[in-house]
Specification:
- By secondary structure, the protein is of the alpha/beta class.
- Helices cover 42% and strands 13% of the residues.
- It contains 10 helices and 8 strands.
- The chain has an 8-stranded parallel beta sheet.
- 40% of the residues are buried.
- The structure holds 3-methyl-2-oxobutanoic acid.
- 3-methyl-2-oxobutanoic acid binds next to strand 6.
Length: 245
């Protein structure tokens, strides 16, 4: 899977073999420049979901339920989930499980597929004191494994495991019947997800250990912009055939 937030990339993903798209609340950071995902709300997620759904109708689209949208009771959570589903989601992703088991169950029972998200839950960044690897201590690892089992029991169809030791992710993946999708969780997960802009190397200042830029996108874009700039300044663009008579 990869993340996507807009129509143009959604159209390209439609032509790819990528199995699924996540309209992540990382949109707040990647598209809007916020320092965390806490600035995403249901309205922001709706706008990005509609754009992606217009470009990638037919792809499997999962949308993040934003910060606290699933912590204010089942009715508020269902309101938020219904907006995202009507916008084009086929499933919602919810961080964590402790304290909102009832909400996850109500959403699943309402016919909305739920993907879990454990390990580093970016919406809890301030509780961690930063974006930190989770599950390194025995207690923390056990806690994540218990939450994964609970999510499976509640009816989640898959779980994202973010920034946990590879051994822990492998053990959890082997213990569950539902698939795990890893990001910074090693090769033992059933699938992998990356932020599209990261795998395209569009942000040269961001080098997480778990990421791999499969393209030097920033260099490609900058070289292309330089070619345009030079052509305009040299008077070679637009040419005759690029002008109307
Ligand atoms: O919002 C997001 O991009 C995510 C991925 C990191 C899984 O949740």
């Amino acid at each position: 899977m990869v993340t996507c937030y807009d129509y143009t990339f959604a159209r390209l993903l439609m032509k790819s073999a990528i199995d699924g798209i996540l309209v992540g609340d990382s949109a707040a950071m990647v598209m809007h420049g916020h320092p965390t995902t806490l600035s995403a709300n249901t309205e922001l997620m709706r706008v990005h979901t509609e754009a992606v759904a217009r470009g990638a109708a037919g792809k499997f689209i999962v949308v993040d339920m934003p910060f606290l949208s699933f912590r204010k009771g089942a009715v508020a959570a269902l309101d938020s989930a219904s907006i995202l589903m009507i916008a084009g989601a086929q499933a919602v992703k919810i961080e964590g499980v402790d304290g909102h088991e009832d909400v996850i169950q109500r959403i699943v029972q309402s016919g909305i597929p739920v993907m879990g998200h454990l390990g580093l839950q970016p919406q809890s960044v301030h509780a961690y004191g930063g974006f930190r690897v989770q599950g390194r201590s025995r207690d923390s690892a056990q806690n994540i494994a218990c939450q994964a089992a609970a999510l499976e029991k509640l009816g989640a169809f898959a779980i994202v495991l973010e920034c946990v030791p590879a051994n822990l992710a492998r053990d959890i993946s082997e213990s569950l019947r539902i698939p795990t999708i890893g990001i910074g969780a090693g090769a033992g997960c059933d699938g992998q997800i990356l932020v599209l802009q990261d795998l395209l190397g569009l942000n040269p200042d961001f080098h997480p250990k778990f990421g791999r830029p499969f393209l030097n996108g920033a260099r490609c874009v900058l070289e292309t912009l330089a070619r345009f700039d030079e052509a305009v300044k040299a008077g070679t663009f637009p040419a005759g055939e690029e002008s109307y008579s």
